[in-house]
Amino acid sequence: MTQQRDARPLIMIIDDDVATVEMLELVLNACGYLPLSGPTTYHALAFVRSKRPALVLLNVHMSNFNAIELCRSMHADPRTAQIPIICMTSDAVLVEAFFLEDAPQTMALLSKPFTLPALQHAIATRLAAP
Asked: What does the alpha-carbon distance between residue 85 and residue 20 come to, in Å, rounded to a whole number?
């Protein structure tokens, strides 16, 4: 018997808070996406390259992990440069400087705490962008 491939858009979640990851997995599933949690280590870029998600939800503030550096690395790599990234943060001021300086068009900022409609809108907007 042939196994069918899931046609839902794959959304990778990179966050070190287990409760947040679990909540996002439930919400994304309910919204028709295929969630996948990714590593919060230096292996994240290789994982993104291998899985080729439609979008990455990235927590900016994680212990032992530089999320902004992952954004820069993804943007610099032709294999991942076009993958949209939504940076989730409760400290928008800190990240705003990065966005003003050199954030690519594929990136968006989502301030925590966020609502389900805000998350849905951010995802739909990034996935619809050329």
From this structure: 17
d(CA 37, CA 25): 8
Buried b / exposed e across 22-37, counting CB within 10 Å, b at 16+? Answer: eebbeebeebebbbbb
Taking only the tens place, the pLDDT of each residue in 61-109 is 777 777 888 888 898 899 999 999 998 888 766 656 555 555 566 678 8
pTM of the model: 0.86
Instruction: Report yes or no on 2 lying in a domain.
Output: no
CATH number of the domain that 94 lies in? 3.40.50.2300
Measured CA to CA, the distance from residue 75 to residue 2 in angstroms comes to: 36
Q: What span, in angstroms and rounded, lies between the C-alpha atoms of 11 and 33?
A: 7
Residue for token pair 């993958």: 83
